[in-house]
Each structure stands twice: as structure tokens, then as C-alpha cells.
Design goal:
Elements lengths: L4 H12 L4 H17 L12 E5 L4 H10 L8 E3 L6 E6 L4 E7 L2 H9 L6 H11 L2 H4 E6 L16 E2 L6 E2 L5 E3 L2 E3 L2 H5 L6
Parallel strand pairs: 1-2
Antiparallel strand pairs: 1-3, 3-4, 4-5, 6-7, 8-9
Helix pairs in contact: 1-2, 1-3, 2-3, 2-5, 4-5
One zinc ion binds next to helix 7.
């Protein structure tokens, strides 16, 4: 079942290495997502119902799986590098999804609430514990198209890239002139072989 915010803070600090405003924001975001979807036990009984998309590789993202139990290695956490403090929580059973975006105004709200606190991080940590969900996040109900190959537990034969020979899982190959290519060989390589 869902725990309290202070309980999650302890777990998040241990997993992330420190407690910071971003962690609290991520925990609040995940808790609000669970509330909106009506999921009471995301890391337990409801764990097969949930897939989460995250849009930034920062502190808040580390906190989200603490609540949801969604992990990259279980294919239940999907990373789209959009540079936004945002996440989409998808309920696979009810086929509903909600995208939450951290409001730009919350840093300003934190300054207004705690002008006497010198540290920005402490200011924001306090405010992010106390502000209402609606003040922290913008809510957008969305449709997320997840193919069977995107689902946790999907099984299919691996394909070998016709160019580099490396194995590709989960239908991530690209077919060019009838040849299956990995995405690196198809032009998305982020590294240069030396
Ligand atoms: Zn942090
Ligand atoms: Zn290749």
C-alpha cells in the first residue's frame, strides 16, 4: 500500500544519495499520479498495471520509482529525454494515462512562502511538502500508444543487425531495403567507433 511522504523521503534519500527538493517534487508527482489513477498499491498488487514515462534525467526522476515501483530494467519505466520535469503514469488495465508537469511557478511560490530561509533547496523542500497538488503540477489526461513490444514481459526472438551483427530485442530494429538494422547503424549512433 502507499506510504506517507516522510516514509518515502527516507527511502528516496537512501536510493538517491541525498534528500533534495527534486526528490520531494518527484515523490509528490508520483503520489499525485497514483491518486489521479486510483492506484493504491502500485509497487505491490497493482504493479502489473502501471507504466511510467519520465522526461528528464534529474533528481525528481530518481524519486518516482520509489513510489511507483516502476523500474527501467523491468520495462515499466520509460525515459524520453525531453528535458522537462514531467512524467506520464499509464494504467494499463483501465487504459487511462495522466501526464503531470511541474509548474514553473512553484520555485517562486517557495520564495514567497519561506523568504527567511536562505537556502533555495531548503526553501523548496519545505514548500514542495506543503503546496497543494494543483499548485505543484499541471495535469493533462492523455492517450499513450503502447505496442505489445513496449510492454513489460514481451517476448520475441532477437534480430541480428545486418550491418554490425549485434542482437536487437523488442522490435527496435529498422528495416532498410529489406535489411534489419539496429538504430545505431540506421543513423542514430551517439558514439563514434575509434
Ligand atoms: Zn537530488
Ligand atoms: Zn548495427
Amino acid at each position: 500500500m502507499l506510504k506517507s511522504l516522510p516514509e518515502y523521503e527516507v527511502l528516496a534519500a537512501a536510493a538517491h544519495g541525498h534528500l533534495c527538493a527534486g526528490q520531494i517534487l518527484g515523490l509528490r508527482m508520483a503520489l499525485y499520479g497514483m491518486k489521479l489513477l486510483g492506484l493504491e498499491d502500485p509497487a505491490g498488487a497493482d504493479r502489473k498495471r502501471l507504466v511510467t514515462f519520465v522526461e528528464i534525467d534529474r533528481c525528481a526522476t530518481d524519486a518516482i520509482p520509489i513510489v511507483t515501483g516502476c523500474r527501467l530494467g523491468k520495462r515499466a519505466l520509460k525515459f524520453r529525454d525531453f528535458g522537462k520535469v514531467a512524467a506520464t503514469f499509464c494504467d494499463l488495465r483501465d487504459n487511462s494515462a495522466v501526464r503531470l508537469v511541474a509548474r514553473e511557478s512553484s520555485k517562486q511560490r517557495a520564495r514567497e512562502m519561506y523568504p527567511e530561509v536562505a537556502s533555495r533547496n531548503l526553501q523548496q523542500m519545505r514548500a514542495y511538502r506543503e503546496l497543494a497538488d494543483e499548485e505543484l503540477f499541471e495535469t493533462q489526461w492523455v492517450r499513450v500508444r503502447l505496442g505489445p513490444e513496449d510492454m513489460p514481459g514481451y517476448k520475441a526472438p532477437r534480430v541480428m543487425c545486418a550491418q554490425c551483427g549485434e542482437g536487437i530485442s523488442f522490435k527496435r530494429e529498422v528495416v532498410r531495403q529489406g535489411r534489419p538494422l539496429c538504430r545505431a547503424c540506421a543513423g542514430e549512433r551517439y558514439y563514434e567507433p575509434l
